[in-house]
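#struct-help
A.M.: can someone run this one for me? Single chain, 164 residues.
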Amino acid sequence: MTAVDLQPTPVPTAFEVRELFEGMLGRGVEWSDGKKVDPLDGAACATYVDDFGNVLAIALADVPLIARGGSAIALMPQNGAEQAVSSGLVTPPQFDNMSEILNVAASLFNKKDTVHLKLKDTYAPRETLPGDVNSLALQEGARLDGTLSIQGYGDGRISIVVAF
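D.P.: on it. Structure tokens below:
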């Protein structure tokens, strides 16, 4: 297979995203369509690159998803997640745990006939994003925006954007 034969990186489906979180967290997760995550409101941003370092996709997780997902994967108490949501400040373990989930999320982009993507960086909430990453976060097309409801922890929003 040559590079010419490869298909564009697909936008993952809501089902694939829900399944990834459910599998990673080991508990029920529900998906509902939602509004896009704005990095200016505070969000973790994962960048996914090809073998040449080109950013071809990003994932944005808002503070509630970082706090609740990052706590749920480590079985941390739910009240710690709620404190983080109330203050708008996630703990380093919550951010590190969400970064691991976003690392595994690279699998959402890798299909049989597509360019292989891998996680390059994960930016913390309120960290300045590079210009190309910020532009991709604001892109209107080729994106999936939704809310994940994590059993026993609550809701958080995620946006996934693929460059086209």
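A.M.: thanks! The chain has a mean pLDDT of 95.
D.P.: also worth noting: Residues 72 and 164 are 33 Å apart (CA to CA).
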